[in-house]
Design a protein that fits this description.
The chain contains 5 helices and 11 strands, in the order ααααβββββββββββα. It has 237 residues and is an alpha+beta fold. The structure holds zinc ion (ZN). The site of zinc ion has 4 residues, from loops.
Length: 237
């Protein structure tokens, strides 16, 4: 009696039963897939930095992530990129019509030593303009004296800020400053600002002006920044 009831029940509802069986099977498959992926994702998401070492051995091999740069490296790199020398910089500086900053020196006498090696794996990043001791040093451009500074390498030095506040002209190995030159002095292109000397690491008797142009990282900064070769800018006339 009971068995015949079951048999007739199955016969009557076999499609409904089949439907539920399929539904159950599909749910079981989805659940197992979901569980399988969860642990790996949660580990990579929570650790962030060393996912490759923490994920379990069954996970497919992953590329070892590059070490994350430190905050200071990153900031310096970003500043450097933001501060990279572009054709717009060169175009602007060319429009300044820079003066050869040593009195009586012609363009044909200039030598491009910008890329020359210097001590301690440094690059020159400047040009040297030879001239007799005491020859007037001239402002290459309008601007203002942003810093008067004495250093071991540069000796007596002067930093001039361009009117755009984006570029600094650097004059080094000076014998002395011209009268009236002080920090904040406004300069006109061609003003006498100092005299050629051999101070700093120029070498005794090696009288020359070390002249550099840079794009400092911070506006109104005077030291550091990306160097720009003055040679082609001074050769334009
Ligand atoms: Zn030099």
């Amino acid at each position: 009696m009971k068995r015949s009831f079951m048999r007739s029940f199955i016969r009557r509802y076999k499609f409904v039963l089949l439907f539920w069986a399929c539904l159950f099977l599909a749910a079981a498959i989805m659940l197992s897939r979901h569980n399988g992926s969860m642990p790996r994702n949660s580990v990579t998401n929570s650790s962030g930095t060393d996912s490759a070492t923490r994920s379990n051995a069954k996970a497919p091999p992953k590329m070892e992530p590059l070490p994350a740069p430190s905050q200071s490296d990153k900031a310096a790199e970003e500043a450097d990129v933001a501060n990279a020398i572009t054709s717009a910089d060169v175009h602007y500086l060319a429009s300044r019509n820079l003066l050869i900053p040593v009195q009586g020196v012609a363009a044909s006498q200039l030598r491009d030593t910008f890329n020359q090696a210097r001590s301690e794996a440094r690059r020159h990043d400047a040009i040297d303009i030879s001239a007799p001791q005491g020859t007037p040093v001239l402002a290459a451009s309008d601007g203002s004296v942003i810093k008067l500074f004495q250093s071991d390498k540069g000796g007596v030095t002067l930093y001039e800020l361009d009117p755009s506040s984006r570029y600094v002209y650097y004059y080094a190995h000076l014998m002395r400053y011209a009268d009236g030159i002080a920090e904040g002095t406004q300069l006109r292109r061609g003003d006498v600002i100092a005299y050629v000397g051999d101070t700093g690491n120029a070498g005794a008797g090696n009288y020359h002006l070390h002249f550099a142009i840079s794009k400092p990282i911070s506006p109104h900064g005077w030291s550091g920044g990306n160097p720009i070769n003055p040679y082609p800018l001074l050769m334009r006339k």
